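WARN retry 2 of 3 for item q-0093 after timeout on previous attempt; input resubmitted unchanged.
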Amino acid sequence: MTINIILLGPPGAGKGTQARKLVEERGMVQLSTGDMLRAARTSGTEMGRKVAEVMDRGQLVTDDIVIGLIREKLAEGGKGFIFDGFPRTLAQADALGKLLEETGTALDTVIEMQVDDEALVRRITGRFTCGNCGEVYHDETKPTAKEGVCDVCGSTDLQRRADDNEDSLRTRLLEYYKKTSPLIGYYYAKGKLTPVNGLAEIDIVASQIDTALDGN
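OK item q-0093 returned
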């Protein structure tokens, strides 16, 4: 069964984590804007050359180019698509809806990963990773057994993302609420919205998403 979905939610809500689980467990294709742009830039295709020219000039890639990349991906087929990071605005949602209609592609559901802002700030600002093996830790919920040493590989290269600080996160949240949160009402009005608790444990969130997808 082919299922196509959009993952909505503020930065740090876990969209990327859940998208990876769906790719691994259901064979779906994750359409991440950043990944598509990086792949297109080195593809040698006409669209890829357009992307490279725009990025080399230091300009933002237009919505038309992103829609063109998505069109190419849809043409490749697969077991369903996960739109992650697109659309971000109502204009992009309209453009995506038009493309899906033109290509005869159904949008089955839009998963809204709901979070509490203050809890999200605590979750994001407390996390750090091992630079050697990639294991993820948290100051409160998952500290290392020995301070400064990775439990998995013993490395002392523990890192925090530069933008995982409170001021940066609150700026990103504000940007999300200004530009992207209107999509919640947009897709609710279309009868496509399914809210899940984005702050639950990863497997619980995955279970909520599975229930939503299997109901379509």
